[in-house]
Amino acid sequence: MYTKTGSPVTLQAPVDAGDYEVRYQSDREKGVFARLKFSVEDIQASLQAPDEVAAGQAFQVDWQGPNGERDYVTVVPAGAAPGTYKEYQYTRYGPSLKFTAPQQAGDYEVRYQSDRVKNRVFASRPLRVK
Length: 130
Fold this sequence. Notes:
10 strands, five-stranded mixed sheet, 130 residues
């Protein structure tokens, strides 16, 4: 981010856990004028939902997680590739979300995912539709 935007600046932390460094530097004068080290912890997310629901039945999913700008909860077929989504709701709509079970019986997953990081599932739990 350029300093011409003013001070202070707001930066978004990386999604991956690890040690990082914020640097104040110039591309004209080659050098780092200040640095600040920081650590990012693993993202903690969890889901609470019924183990089994009837096809087409309404059910509730309670979630806990970082509630990032583009985080969402979705219901997908079991084993679907990470990043797959069907019916979904953004977490910004609250910690309890209402869903309708798929019409076809089978094994599914309720997932907490993010559009910010493609193919990243932060939490998942099985859901049987009968």
